[in-house]
């Protein structure tokens, strides 16, 4: 059974309709560690050694966050800049993450068709997540197909609950050895 670390970041979690249900669906799941970065580091003063230790204890690392302004919340960038050190995570001697799996779990306000060359945003979700994929590649990790909840501004409560069930099922497949690598 693989161990999954979810690096969760939502700067307005108390207002979130989608992520609150995604988190509720997976709380207490065996083999899954939910690590809320804004809760642990409200001042954004990240404990690099602690975070690196968490990474070493897990096989799969997922960044869960809303897609804000075509990117991730600030604390994720801060986390990456500090925790993924040269010589530890990447570089000639940086092999700590080699062979692990990385991915994203995101919510996007617009409908899926908006994220295309012809759509409103002119780029795909994969395009917006390219920095995560390249970071995984640099750290010698495999990158998963992202789990995306589209259309969150118009998604019904029932639709949100269905997405939460799908999310839990996806984590169960990952944990039990059935990853969908991109």
TrEMBL record:
<dbReference type="InterPro" id="IPR029039">
    <property type="entry name" value="Flavoprotein-like_sf"/>
</dbReference>
<feature type="domain" description="Flavodoxin-like fold">
    <location>
        <begin position="3"/>
        <end position="164"/>
    </location>
</feature>
<dbReference type="InterPro" id="IPR046980">
    <property type="entry name" value="KefG/KefF"/>
</dbReference>
<dbReference type="GO" id="GO:0003955">
    <property type="term" value="F:NAD(P)H dehydrogenase (quinone) activity"/>
</dbReference>
<dbReference type="GO" id="GO:0009055">
    <property type="term" value="F:electron transfer activity"/>
</dbReference>
<protein>
    <submittedName>
        <fullName>Kef-type potassium/proton antiporter accessory protein, CPA2 family</fullName>
    </submittedName>
</protein>
<keyword id="KW-0560">Oxidoreductase</keyword>
<dbReference type="GO" id="GO:0010181">
    <property type="term" value="F:FMN binding"/>
</dbReference>
<dbReference type="Pfam" id="PF02525">
    <property type="entry name" value="Flavodoxin_2"/>
</dbReference>
<dbReference type="InterPro" id="IPR003680">
    <property type="entry name" value="Flavodoxin_fold"/>
</dbReference>
